[in-house]
């Protein structure tokens, strides 16, 4: 008879619905808990996307290991791109040694773009059309305004040649040395201020310093083409050599031993500027003849490095005009 478990040969199996069945006692409760979001395909080891990503990563790392240091240096020393309509026009006016001008296809040209195209044509600079995607690759933020100027790597002067040219200029040397300046925008602004107030050049350390990149070109508005910039393998040694030749070294710091109102900058002078955060390094500070502070009427504790340099250079230029 169906359901007769007592018939000969019948066997009752544990866990069937017939009769009393023991519960799990809560041991399976965790099986009902949620397991969270489904992992991405790349994070699932059994998925084809994970295998493709792993293969691509291995290929990229292998290519990086196989590259020579010379190839890496070539990438770092590759061309720079000045972006934006005003900076491009300023660089072309200043005679920046550009190699190509890129103009976006379908862009809205104005008088600045027309002037840039005309100047590039007159100078024999290649004029190339580019898509928005191509120009976006030149910029990290896409602020190119539809135009880009390709410039070769900057050629730095030697510190000795920089000082020699300043002494041969007919006016007392006025140079700016930058210590711990890592923002290329500050470098570009200092170059622009130095050129505007009659300075003869800027010197920067060869290491741990901002370089004359496209950002510095843009901030200097073309002044980097007119003003020499030197790289010093050892900034402290260079400053000491200049001091030994009769040049006064004046460092800028809010806790200076003299103020701008009291300082005479009409003679051979090197203005040494440190970063806003770290200031002057110990060895560079000890090399300076004086530490100069700028009197301020407001409650501001300090000025941006490039602003401070501009204020001091403007005052020294005024002193030289009136003497």
UniProtKB/TrEMBL annotation:
Output the InterPro entries linked to this UniProt entry: Alpha/beta_knot_MTases, Ribosomal_eL30-like_sf, rRNA_MeTrfase_TrmH, SpoU_MeTrfase, SpoU_subst-bd, tRNA_m1G_MTases_N
Q: What superkingdom does the record give? A: Bacteria
- What is the protein name stated in its UniProt record? 23S rRNA (Guanosine(2251)-2'-O)-methyltransferase RlmB
Compositional bias of kind Low complexity:
55-69
Extract the SMART domains matched here.
Answer: SpoU_sub_bind
Q: What keywords would UniProt list here?
A: Methyltransferase, Transferase
Please list the residue ranges annotated as the RNA 2-O ribose methyltransferase substrate binding domain: 81-157
What organism does the record attribute this protein to?
Answer: Williamsia deligens
- What family does this belong to? Belongs to the class IV-like SAM-binding methyltransferase superfamily. RNA methyltransferase TrmH family.
The annotated regions of Basic residues compositional bias extend over 1-10
Pfam family for this entry, one: SpoU_methylase
Instruction: Enumerate the residue ranges of region (Disordered).
Output: 1-82
* Ion transport in keyword set: no
Checking Gene3D superfamilies in the record gives: 3.30.1330.30, 3.40.1280.10
């Amino acid at each position: 008879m169906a359901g007769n478990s007592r018939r000969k040969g019948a066997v009752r199996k544990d866990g069937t619905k017939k009769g009393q069945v023991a519960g799990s006692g809560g041991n399976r409760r965790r099986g009902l808990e949620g397991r969270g979001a489904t992992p991405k395909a790349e994070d699932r080891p059994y998925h084809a996307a994970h295998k493709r990503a792993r293969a691509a990563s291995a290929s990229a790392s292998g290519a990086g290991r196989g590259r020579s240091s010379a190839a890496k240096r070539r990438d770092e020393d590759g061309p720079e791109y000045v972006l934006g309509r005003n900076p491009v026009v300023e660089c072309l006016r200043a005679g920046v040694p550009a190699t190509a001008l890129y103009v976006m296809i379908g862009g809205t040209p104005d008088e600045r773009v027309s002037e840039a195209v005309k100047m590039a044509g007159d100078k024999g600079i290649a004029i190339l059309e580019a898509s928005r995607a191509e120009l976006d690759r030149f910029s990290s933020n896409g602020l190119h305004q539809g135009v880009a100027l390709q410039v070769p790597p900057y050629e730095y002067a030697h510190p000795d040649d920089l000082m020699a040219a300043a002494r041969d200029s007919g006016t007392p040397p006025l140079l700016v040395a930058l210590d711990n300046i890592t923002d290329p925008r500050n470098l570009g602004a200092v170059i622009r201020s130095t050129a505007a107030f009659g300075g003869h050049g800027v010197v920067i350390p060869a290491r741990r310093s901002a370089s004359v990149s496209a950002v510095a070109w843009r901030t200097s508005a073309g002044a980097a083409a007119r003003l020499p910039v030197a790289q010093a393998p050892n900034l402290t040694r260079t400053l000491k050599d200049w001091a030994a030749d009769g040049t006064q070294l004046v460092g800028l710091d809010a806790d200076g031993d003299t103020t701008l109102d009291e300082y005479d900058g009409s003679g051979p002078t090197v203005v040494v500027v440190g970063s806003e955060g770290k200031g002057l390094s110990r060895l560079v500070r000890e090399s300076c003849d004086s530490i100069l502070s700028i009197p301020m009427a407001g409650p501001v504790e300090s000025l941006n490095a490039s602003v401070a340099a501009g204020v001091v250079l403007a005052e020294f230029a005024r002193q030289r005009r009136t003497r």
